[in-house]
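Lab manual, section 2.4: Encoding a predicted structure.

Procedure: take the sequence of the chain (453 residues), apply the prediction step described in section 2.3, and record the output as structure tokens. A sample record is shown.
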Amino acid sequence: MDGGGGEEWLRKKKAKASTHEPIRLKADTKTPKRFPPKSHPILQLFDPSPHLPSVSTCCRCIDVGYNKILPMAMATCFGTAVVHNKRGLRPNYLCSKRCSKRSRPPAYHWDKGHGTGINSWLIQLEGGGWCNNVSNCLVRKNTHLGSSKRMTFTIGTESKSGIVMDHRSPAMLQQSIHPGSGMPPPYRGLKMVTNLHFRGARVWLAVMEDLLSKGMKNAENAILSGCSAGGLASILHCDSFRALLPMGTKVKCISDAGYFINTRDVSGGHYIQTFFDQLVVTHGSAKNLLPSCTSRMKPGLCFFPQYIAQQIRTPLFIINAAYDSWQIRNILAPGIADPHGHWESCKLDIKNCLPNQIKVMQDFRLQFLVALLRLGKSASRGMFIDSCFAHCQTEMQELWFMQDSPLLNKTKIGKAVGDWFYDRNPFQKIDCAYPCNPTCHNRVYDDPHAPHS
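Recorded output:
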């Protein structure tokens, strides 16, 4: 497929969802607040020469309006391109006549690549959990997860000399494409009573179309990555993202903490399976899930990577903790399965866990590894499965490629992913059982009822 073919495919898909073409509007003229963000580690795959400072730009986005449950094209965008405009980047707005009067148009921030990275692209999908029913979605609607009206719109730059892996400085966009679910649903209309919108698919298509027009159709390298719910979305969207780009483009996907497994909770129930079943119904997501999966099992199961991983044709790298702290807290021992709070202290800090709880978590690890086997042994598959109590390990420099970053087979995450992406060496490593890895940065929570990360 050439670049024009990718655009034609997207144009046809977009036409089915809406007859209105997106219109780029002028950005807000107000100067945004600034803050000192950390540079996004995955960008080190494309960083400029080691002799140049590594500069990252991070933008918290405004409300995208298409979906009040979770902002669709809202984005925190990171990049390594040097930013000369000290007042910061301006948001790109997309507008459709189908937006309601109370909705803002979808928007995103991006950092244009330069030099040898002008045709390298990194799309980062943000995490944030999901809502599985109207009540939960209404709660999210009034938080930063549901509307960026509740978010602080900040922007800033940070210059720092860091370890660089490769020589490119890519175009970068980070966005959240899931309206409280891991897969954008089709437009299902405005719920007049709740004012909840389900238009994620349109926003995803509009943003992709706009990025193609900005030069993504000429991409030589492209990564679709994500953390947590965004990591799951990067798996679900991996092949369709590949289909947008020319055949000659190197396209690969990275899922960080997105390999959620279907297993029983500590009460013997199927909490997470029920949760995903409800999610599919609420968001009408069934028709957007892989037909090869939904033809064999109920749609809710097709949110679990273990049932779809073998069907993903695009190269995929899984970064996950075998004792994923989110999964321990929300799949293995959710509050509904632990009414007396026996797991509360353990879920705050793995060092607080009792011997019998550690044993349950060891069993969870084994189930996770069995589910991971569904990926297959192809060299196009990458794995970095450590034994840490952690969730999302690619969004902080100290976990990516710093001196004290977690090691697996004496290799840091950044080195493993870089070698895999550039076909230097395959990497498929699984850590020994907890507590064997002294390099782990185990997560400690302050609130046992903290929201989804």
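Check your result against the sample. The mean pLDDT is 73.
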